[in-house]
Amino acid sequence: MEINVALLTTAEECDTALEILQAEKTQLQRRLRNLGERLESRSATTVDVSEGIVSVQAILKGYQAAVDLITDEKAKRELELKIEREETKLKALQNRQANYNAVSVVEDQVDHTQLEAQLPVLDDAITMVETHKGTL
Q1: DSSP for 9-74?
Q2: What are residue 48's phi and psi, to 5 degrees?
Q3: Cα 105 to chain center, whole Å?
Q4: Are the C-beta atoms of 30 and 114 separated by less than 8 Å?
Q5: pTM for the full predicted model
Q6: Cα distance between residue 107 and residue 122, in whole Å
Q7: Of 10, 40, 26, the residue nearest 126 (C-alpha)
Q8: What is the pLDDT of residues 9-57, one digit of tens each?
Q9: 102-129: string of b/e by CB count within 10 Å (b at 16+)?
């Protein structure tokens, strides 16, 4: 859709339009910055959570294999407690994975790309209004 700056017939209308466009651009830049920071954080956390799950699963396999071999009841109970703690860690990591996963990273990347695409449109509109204002 073309932007029809000819609809602005006074310098005051142009100034109002410029104020609105500048405010929108500032807000868009802020959203882009915040989303970019969130994207970096989410990407790193996604990797950390995935690696944490793999690590805890490996520890659990080792503990579970060892618990079958231990005959001392005290040592066996201590290892069973360690297994319970690791299972709790695993559940917590799996719950975090619901929020920090590859799909959520891709969603944020799409949102970021869409916002980035809006900036040139705003810049062009601001330039057009400024140019039009100069002709009034």
Answers
A1: -SHHHHHHHHHHHHHHHHHHHHHHHHHHHHHHHHHHHHHHHHHHHHHHHHHHHHHHHHHHH---HH
A2: -60, -45
A3: 6
A4: no
A5: 0.69
A6: 23
A7: 26
A8: 999 999 999 999 999 999 999 999 999 999 999 889 999 999 999 999 9
A9: eebbeebeeebeebeeeeeebeebbebb
C-alpha separations of 2 from 5, 6, 14, 37, 129 in Å: 9, 11, 17, 33, 13
Closest Cα partner for 67 from 81, 55, 79, 57? 79
Amino acid at 135: T
Distances (CA, A) of 43 to 36, 77, 93, 108: 10, 38, 15, 10
